[in-house]
Structure formats: C-alpha cells, structure tokens
Amino acid sequence: MIASIITGKSTTPTALAKELVFTYGEYVVSDFNACIVGHKIALTAREVDIVKGHILTIIERSAKMMNCDTITFNREQAEKEIGITK
Fold it and tell me: pTM for the full model?
C-alpha cells in the first residue's frame, strides 16, 4: 500500500509522485530516498520504480509547458541521478 505524504491515507503512485514534486521540486530527483524516508513511507522496489518514473514525467512535462529556452530537462541524466538507470 502506498501512503500519501500529506494525508497518510492510501494513494496511487501518480498521486504520490505529484505530492513529492509539489513538496520538493527537482530536489526529489537528486535525493529521492531522503524525501521518502523523511515521511516514513514504505514502498516496494516495484513501487519505487513506478513513482520515480512518474516524477521524471511530471518534471519533464512541467519544463515543456514553461516553454523557457534557458531551461532544458535532460531525462537521461535525471534517470541516472534518481537511480532508474546506471
């Protein structure tokens, strides 16, 4: 069961990813484990991978929607940083 960091109730991987991005911004990419441990959330390895993927998608879409030429989002680098790929 995935728990919300806000309400503590059961939630979906997508909703948890949204909460983490809203709360921590891009910091969640660089230190995902600290963000999760700080809220005492227990996730399986599969759930962690799903939430991490959603986090990257949310940040990537946000960067696109801002349409700012000076900010570029490198998904490959972010996947390495968050620990999806090596």
Answer: 0.83
